[in-house]
Each structure stands twice: as structure tokens, then as C-alpha cells.
# Entry
Amino acid sequence: MNESPLKIGYVPSHLFTYFAQEYDVFGRSVKTLEALAREQGFALEVVSEPVSDAVDAIRAQQAMDAAGVDLVLLQSSSFAMGDVVSAFAAGKARIGLWAVEEPTHQGPVLLNNFVSLNMNASILRKYFSPPIPYKWFFGIAEHPWFAPRLAITVKALTALKRLRESRVGWIGGLAPTFYNFTFDPRKLAERLGGQVISHELEELFERMQFSTAEVDHTIEEMTAFARNRVEVSKEDVGQNARIFLALRKLAREQGYAALAVNDWPRFQSKLGIHPGMAFSWLDQAEGIPVASEGDVLGALSMLLMRVISGKGAMLLDFTDIDLDTGSLLTWHCGGSPLNLANKEGIIWKNHSTLGRKNSMVRPVGAVADFRFAPQPVTLTRLSKDANRLLVIEAKVIEGINQGFDGSRGWLQDFHLNHEVSTLADLVNTVLVEGIEHHFILGSGLHAEVFSEIAAWTGMSVIERVPYRNFLQFA
# Structure
């Protein structure tokens, strides 16, 4: 997948009756952006001359589009007329509106650019139908209203750029009866871009022929990562190594950034194993997230979280509740990114539920068994064809109990859409809203970035539904 950096274009605008040139607003702004480009990891495109009227603005807008700019920072270096911002409403790039501090605070106004910032925001919001999304910025260099706000935007738009450029492999369709994961690929493409490509599981099985040396090398790497703590048969480890190699081969052939794979029951009936170990290793070794049970929106959510957090993101269920401590157990069966493990590390084990009540069926392996390291985390979920977005921040804690076998962690201290939420409110919101039962957990606090993603794309962020004893269904 092409991973070109986010490209930001700087377009200064002014009227000659003000003093942007005399106070070097253009030069200081470029220096500020060059420093931030190095720090935040975006590419910078600068127009050669400031714009002062609609003709200049149209020329600059076309140059930004030709350069493939993702975000235009239209700076009101001084006051400028409304036809300047109107020209950029027709462009392909998203719009940032920027003004800087006045050089003085009394006497004749020298820039009058805050008024221009206000006017431009109002034009985009009120004059155009539908309104044109924008984000405002203020200040230069170390001003607290510029660099921190831009950093959130860079992360959000970088993640959206990755999704727009991405291809997701959907292998084997949905898990049986998991109707809530049904999606419309046309609606996904319209809102987020990207492509979802469908494959039969047989296409994967046919790719599982590899040399003994290649399989043994993969087994050695997976075993060493677990510090040789392997409680499954060599046959199951070898099968998972082959599945990993087949998934990697398919992903490389097709340029997939993420996969959604139906991991039961065909893997059990065909190969007699669970592919969780292979899923984990694909994330660990290749940085490719794998959503189990054919959950395509889950795979896209994992990809978003990986780009934003810089680490593997886990797909999991809400599995148990502890009212005494106000804690929630998040869990899945073990096809998980391994970077979330605590200092005890991982153990490769048999799946904890498949075939356990059938004495005629041997234990099914292999999956990663571990507990999450204590840390702040973010949970999210693209829902309802990416019309809605769940945004939760919480904290992984230890000390309640070990939790269920698999990959798991207890969470406390919830913030739902930036508001403090009790456990009861969180559970009530998830169930009343009917959110799909897979949630994506990643390291770090990223609610601001996800909220900005929702704003740029027109998704609604799911609001807290306070717990009540009566039916809440509207």
C-alpha cells in the first residue's frame, strides 16, 4: 500500500492596505510550518505568491489540487475578501482557516485578520449548501492554539488518507449468523474510500504450500517471541505458520492493508485448528491487522487505530462486568496483537472454547494467551456502514482477577465521547445503541483524533445514554 505522507498546502491571503508584508507574516509562517512538518511528519507545499483576489485564489486552488494537497491552510495573513475563501470551496483538499496575532494591540489595526478568519468560517458554514467542513487555527510558532490543534488534524487526516488508499481483503465472508456485521461496501466507499475485495477461504487454503525451511523459520520466530512457552502441538503450530505465510502471500499479492477473516467453522473442519496464532503473527511481523469472524468494519477500525496509535490494535468483546469495582472485562479468544501483553508476555495455547464439550474432538490450537499491560487505552468502532463512531477512553488495570483464558484486560475510568461515564452508562449506551459486538482497543488516549475523523467525514459520534431502569429505544 502506498504510504505517502499527508501533504499540507500553505496559501497566504491579504490586502495591500494592511501590513502582512511589513511584519513578515508570510516568512514567519513558512518557517513555523517547516519546523512542524519535520516534527509531525507531513509534507509541505507553499504557493509562490500571496493571493489578494479571486483570480489569484483560483490559480492557487488549482495549483494545490495539481500538487495533490490533502489540507489547504488558507491563512488570512491580513484581512482578505470573501471571494478568496470561496475559491477553495471548489477544491479537492480539505480546508484549514488560519489567522495570526496582531503585531500591536492599540492604535490603527495592522492586520485585521481575525475578522477575516471569522468571516471565512461563516461563509463556509452559512453561504454554501451543504456547508463546507473546515478547521480554524490561530497563532504562529509557539502559540498554544496552533501546533497542538494542527497535530490532531495531521493524525486524523493521515489516518483517513490511509483508509482512502487501502485495500481490505475479506476472506470467507461473515461468521455464521453474525448478521450485525453486515455492511454495504458502496456506503463504506462513499464515506471512507478504499476497497473491500472478497475471497473464498479455499483461495487461502490453496496458498498453504511452503517449503519446510520457510515453515520452520516462522515456527522458530513465533516460539522465540513467546519465550518458548508453547502449550500446543507441533502440528498446530506448523499449520498456523502455514496460514500466516498464506495470509502474508495473499496480502502482498493484493496490496492489502488489513484483513477480515472468517475463522470458524471452516478452519476447524478443514484443518482442525484455529488460526488465531497466525492472525497475531501477521500483525506482529507484518503490521497487518486481522479482524476475526469476517468483520470488515472491525478491520477498518483496527487499521484506523494502528495508524493513529502506531501500534497493533486489538479486536475484542465486552465479556464481563464487576460492579464492585466499576470495571469491564474486555476479551477475545486470542487472535490478537501481541504488543498489548503485560510483562509476563504471551503463551501459545489451545483455543479455550472450540470443541471443549466433545470428547471425540482433540483440543484446537493455537491462540495467544495474555493479559494487557496497565496503560491508558482508547476503544473505538466504526458502526452502521461508518455513519457512526464509538469513542471511549479508559485505563487498563490489574488486580481484580486473571480474567477468562485468551487475550484480555480489565478496564476502568471511562470517558465516553469526552465525558466521564459510569460503567452502567457505558454498558447502557452500547446496548441501547445496538453497537456491533466487536470493539477495537489501542494503546494511548486518542479520542480527540477520532472525534476529528468523525467531523471531517460527517460521522456522528455516539453520545452517552445514561442508565435508566425503563426502556430506552427511540
Observations:
- The mean pLDDT is 96.
- DSSP finds 14 helices and 19 strands in the chain.
- The first helix runs from residue 25 to 40.
- The two ends are 42 Å apart (CA to CA).
